[in-house]
Task: inverse folding
């Protein structure tokens, strides 16, 4: 237990730190500050910046952030993410994220009292045209909780793309959490599922030997390829005619929209639930949201509690998620008109794909958004060796999938090109 003397000492220390911050901040210009070298700011951050530019004095938080901008702390740069091509989940939170966390509400979300979280959920429901939303800690939890909420009593089955994240990268959650059978479909076009692909695999029969399909789960983007809105609408219409629920793993739906292939509301209207991930490509430290109808969200909230996923002072996460989304994706259901920083990563992906092809390499899949698939088998190099050679250049790689994101730097692209030359040069020499 702390004594009064200890409290006094802490108070003096806090006052001393604040005085030092103010002294260091006085010579600094009072012009609005971009806390990270982003081309875009969130709507809220932009409004705050305008207010600050009109005021001769700044509050203590802004002064502290101004000092931290040049301090050697992780928040002030993209760090290792600038050379990391393994995934877009490596994007790091920035000083603007830290500012959102510092200014956030700190009330209890289980009691439904946290303003930042309630605001984010309401905002995401509005953006997608649903009546409800629930914040969760990860994209995996968003998918698994949504599927568990849709399913009630076995026997039941989930039909999904054979390559989907829910099947291969979520620790067998479908089996352990829902008791559902998995039915897989392969895209006949090699890129995305069509309604005809689904019709061939779905089980609608009353035959007691069969396990009936109850939910169809799609993924967008999948392997960097966009699930087209027109085909999604066909699948949705057919599923509703046959009484099937439809879930979207929209962890990278931001990329499809940045590519100009639709908006959040248009895609969401095709589904009964949509999961959106704030940490893939947007730089949030963690967090995802599920949007759906009011009854669905109410049921999901109870199940989330049973999974241990209800969180208390979660404003530190929800505020960071919103700042990251609005800064990188943009305001509104369509994001930035020009695709913003996400579209930049698409241009980088096209450039990387071109580098590989120009040096004699082949691609195993088409490059449409931010993911490039280099054919290492044709280049006669094992994935492990590819990763090891990349590490010699200071690059982090994960086999044939090369993922671009907005924090990748120009130096990393140059080093990747040198690696490509070295690998494909080995092939040409036989």
Result:
């Amino acid at each position: 237990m702390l004594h009064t003397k200890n409290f006094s000492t802490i108070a003096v220390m806090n006052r001393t730190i604040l005085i030092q911050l103010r002294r260091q901040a006085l010579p600094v210009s009072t012009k609005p500050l971009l806390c990270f070298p982003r081309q875009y700011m969130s709507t809220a951050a932009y409004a705050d910046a305008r207010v600050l530019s009109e005021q001769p004095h700044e509050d203590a938080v802004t002064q502290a952030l101004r000092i931290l901008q040049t301090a050697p702390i992780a928040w002030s740069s993209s760090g290792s993410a600038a050379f990391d091509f393994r995934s877009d989940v490596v994007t790091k939170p920035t000083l603007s994220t830290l500012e959102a966390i510092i200014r956030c509400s700190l009330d209890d979300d289980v009691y439904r009292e946290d303003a930042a979280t309630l605001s984010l959920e309401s905002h995401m429901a509005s953006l997608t045209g649903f009546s409800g939303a629930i914040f969760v800690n990860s994209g995996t939890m968003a998918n698994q909780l949504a599927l568990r909420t849709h399913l009630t009593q076995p026997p039941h089955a989930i039909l999904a793309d054979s390559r989907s994240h829910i099947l291969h990268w979520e620790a067998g959650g479908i089996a352990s959490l829902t008791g559902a059978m998995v039915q897989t479909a392969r895209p006949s076009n090699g890129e995305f599922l069509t309604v005809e692909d689904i019709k061939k695999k779905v089980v609608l029969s009353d035959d007691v030997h069969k396990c009936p399909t109850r939910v169809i789960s799609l993924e967008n983007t999948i392997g960097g390829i966009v699930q087209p809105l027109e085909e999604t609408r066909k699948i949705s219409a057919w599923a509703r005619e046959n009484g099937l629920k439809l879930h979207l793993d929209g962890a990278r739906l931001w990329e499809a929209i940045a590519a100009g292939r639709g908006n959040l509301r248009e895609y969401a209207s095709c589904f009964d639930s949509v999961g959106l991930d704030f940490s893939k490509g947007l730089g949030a430290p963690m967090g995802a949201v599920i949007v759906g109808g009011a009854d669905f969200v109410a049921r999901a909230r109870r199940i989330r509690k049973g999974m241990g996923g209800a969180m208390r002072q979660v404003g530190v996460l929800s505020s960071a998620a919103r700042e990251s989304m609005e800064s990188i994706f943009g305001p509104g259901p369509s994001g930035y008109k020009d695709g913003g920083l996400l579209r930049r990563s698409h241009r980088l992906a096209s450039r990387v794909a071109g580098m590989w092809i120009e040096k004699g390499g082949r691609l195993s899949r088409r490059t449409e958004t931010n993911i490039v698939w280099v054919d290492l088998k044709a280049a006669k190099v094992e994935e492990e060796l590819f990763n090891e050679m990349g590490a010699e250049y200071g690059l982090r790689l994960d086999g044939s999938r090369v993922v671009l994101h907005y924090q990748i730097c120009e130096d990393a692209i140059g080093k990747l090109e040198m690696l490509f030359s070295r690998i494909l040069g080995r092939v040409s020499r036989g």
Remarks:
- The radius of gyration is 24 Å.
- The beta strands are 132-136, 157-161, 181-185, 213-219, 245-249, 273-277, 288-292, 371-373, 401-403.
- The first helix runs from residue 4 to 25.
- The CA atoms of residues 225 and 368 lie 6 Å apart.
